[in-house]
Amino acid sequence: MKRRFLTNEPSHRNAYDLFEGRWASDLSEIEPSLPAAGFAGFRQDGRPLEAAAHLGRGGRFDGYDVLELGPLEGAHTYQLEGLGARSITAVESNSDAFLKSLIVKNMVGLNRSTFLLGDVSRYLEAPGPRYDVIFCCGILYHMLDPVELIRLAAARSDRLFIWTHYFLDQPRLPAMTMREVRHGSLTVRLHELTYRHRGLGQFLGGNQPKTRWMELPEILAALHHFGLSETTVIRDDPNGPNGPAVTLAASRPGAAPPSA
To answer: pLDDT per residue over 226-247, tens digit each?
Structure first.
């Protein structure tokens, strides 16, 4: 980012303008003076509420230590704090999105959230704490090895919330190459897609040139294989505007809730 020195009055708008034209989220939801444009994730997106309803306690995350994979610009982080999470660790590999999340954190006063810049799989495979729930929204379909992400997440938590696109053979999806991949005794079909427009400033995909989509039955099979066998498909939208998508909650049988 080019160094800038400002001489006007300090404001949240100055920080917002550092990424003018490159925000994915509608920050007017939290700061009415900002332009009303982008994805309404701070208040209108119901997925954090769905996660709390299925994996929380009484529809909230009070007492929960949450790991959020791919927070993008902190909209869901904001909601997770509002749902009472004791702590949120949010790991983001896109450096621009990471900096935007810090702007949002400062703007709304998030005080129980820590944003980390780096690869989510590298974070999960390193020694570290267990989490009461992992919130994985909009990232699984951006992974080169999505099965490995499920395996690593299952090793660090008894509860996993997922929203993701999945592969379904239909003509409106871009061309993908199918390959079978083995993970121990589990064999899955992955559908490989090469990113287009990865060099654009508004690119919000993964940190590799390619990604691999899973099929829905195989997402469920992988969750079962790695111990998160109590699964609820909250919503399946095979005709989603950007491709088939599923919202689901998975947990380990007999998992005890955290102490409040």
So the answer is: 999 999 999 999 998 888 999 9
